[in-house]
Amino acid sequence: MFASHRRDKILDLLQRDKQVLVKDLARMFNVSEGTLRIDLRILEDEGLLERTHGGAIPLKLQAFARDSRDPSRSQLNFEEKQAIGSKAAELVSDGQCIILDASTTVLELAKSLTGHNYLTVVTNGLETAMTLNQNPRNNVILVGGVLRVGSKTVEGVLGKEILSGIHADLFFTSAEGFSIQEGMTDFSLYEAELKKLMAGNARQTIALVDHTKLGRRSIASSVAFGEIHALITDKKADPAFLKQCQRKEVLIAD
């Protein structure tokens, strides 16, 4: 079990039992108590729990979310995001170079790729990078930039030089909105500019968008509709909208 999955399980146990003990977790996951103490320290640093002598307890009013910028963001349509991420993983082959944005949907793709080998992964997502870096057969490149306040996202175009030297097979990206007219759109101008650079350095751009974002638009355009090669969405997607995307490859995640 990868460390990121183990920490997710710890949070699930903590939400259910309201307390966890290092010695019990060590037996459960078959790892050392020292490893579990590191896990708890990392989760505490992320604001997800409070360590106690020998274990941990929930923070008061803790929502058990992974994105402190919006405590509910990572949990919105979580099952759909998981299904989309799993479907997207089917498009990735061992040995490819891929670019991943820092969205919560693409993070679910990263979790589905932990068994893939010899990938070169370029990303601006700290958690995405840490998830895939646990497989020593993968090469993970973190794009430099400004760490967005209260999040695990690096944004801005300081990593332009890194991206300019990379020729990726696939770029996987999500957005706040996806429309025929504006394509992929986001709240942050800096995030949108970085995604434009990412798309420009990949042979194909794959949009991972759950049904709630279809037909919506936000402030800043990142990838134009005409530059998107395939759309992966969930089974709740509006058929009328998908019909407008008939020129694109559309994959529906179960």
Description:
The chain has 254 residues and is α/β, with parallel strands linked by helices. The protein has two domains: 3-57, Arc Repressor Mutant, subunit A, CATH 1.10.10; 73-253, Rossmann fold, CATH 3.40.50.1360. It has helices at 3-17, 22-29, 33-45, 78-89, 104-112, 126-133, 160-164, 189-200, 239-244, and strands spanning 20-21, 50-52, 55-57, 97-100, 120-123, 139-142, 146-147, 154-155, 168-173, 177-179, 183-186, 202-208, 220-221, 230-234, 249-253. The strands form four sheets. A seven-stranded parallel sheet has the order 6-5-4-9-12-14-15, with helices on both faces. Strands 1-3-2 form a three-stranded antiparallel sheet. The chain has a three-stranded antiparallel sheet with strand order 10-11-13, covered by helices on one side. Strand 14 (230-234), helix 9 (239-244) and strand 15 form a beta-alpha-beta unit. Helix 4 (78-89) packs across helix 5 (104-112) and helix 5 packs parallel to helix 6 (126-133). The longest helix has 15 residues, at 3-17. It is globular, with a radius of gyration of 19 Å. The relative contact order is 0.11. The model is unreliable at 61-72 (pLDDT under 50).
Structure keywords:
254 residues; alpha/beta; Arc Repressor Mutant, subunit A; Rossmann fold; seven-stranded parallel sheet; 9 helices; 35% helix
